[in-house]
Amino acid sequence: MGVVLLIISFNINPGPAPNATLNQLIEFGNHYYAAILWGAWLQAIAPVLIVLFAFSLVKLSGATNSLAGWMTMFGAVVLMIVSLIEITFYIAVVFISPKIGIVINLNAIHAVQHLYFIVAAPTLFIALGAVLYRANVLHRMFSYSAFFLGIAFGVIGMVFLLQLVLPMWVTAIAGIQAIWWLAASISLIARSGKLASA
Contact, 151 vs 122, CB < 8 A? Predict the structure, then answer.
């Protein structure tokens, strides 16, 4: 459900043009006012459900007292914080007074997006990969792919650190994690009978 809400949130708010003027930003905010706010709401709720799923994987793996389990929970909390900070600026950007606030809040959104690649996604996925590697909750492929995603996101964070505004294709790459969560949840549902009997 969290993945579905996340996908909807990305699709209802197209985002302003990269080089939009202040007047164009104001016009965009007025035109997409409801879409921006509903997108923010969806993007606040969706990570809660994804974090709940991550916590469930830690619990099912018996890793609640392990370092990898604690780091997964830490990474999930950091991901949630980064998401909430970004969403706060989504909401703040629709305030049209003072007008300069629109530009400041938009710049803050661009700045916060770096945190996803620098710390949030790498911490969560690398730690979760370690949790799943030691457990029989999901197929081993999910452990390896979690490691890969965590490392890849971290590398992207370093490579694009000096670009204040991440290219659109880079922020789109963050959507790959939704595929991982969806595939993991489907796999867990498929294996739930086997896990229950074990």
Answer: yes
- Give the domain ranges of the chain: 2-12+21-193
Q: Is the pLDDT at 196 greater than 90, yes or no?
A: no
DSSP 107-163: HHHHHHHHHIIIIIHHHHHHHHHHHHHT-SSS-HHHHHHHHHHHHHHHHHHHHTTT-
Q: Could you give the CA distance from residue 194 to residue 25 in angstroms, rounded to a whole number?
A: 53
Provide the Cα torsion 170, 183, 47, 65; round to 10°.
-110
Look at residue 189 and give its three-state secondary structure.
Answer: helix
- Which carries the bigger pLDDT value, residue 18 or residue 152? 152
21 contacts: CB under 8 Å, gap ≥ 6: none
What span, in angstroms and rounded, lies between the C-alpha atoms of 72 and 136? 17
Q: Which two tokens stand for residue 35?
A: 């879409």
Q: Which residue has the higher pLDDT, 9 or 118?
A: 118
> Do residues 35 and 12 touch, judged by C-beta distance below 8 A?
yes
Q: What are the structure tokens assigned to 48, written together?
A: 């809660």
Read off φ and ψ for residue 13, nearest 5 degrees: -120, 100
pLDDT at 73: 97
pLDDT, tens digit, 9 for 90 and up, residues 124-164: 999 999 999 989 899 999 999 999 999 999 999 999 999 99
As a whole number of angstroms, the distance between CA 10 and CA 49 comes to: 16
Q: Which two tokens stand for residue 161?
A: 């650190």
What pTM was computed for the model? 0.90
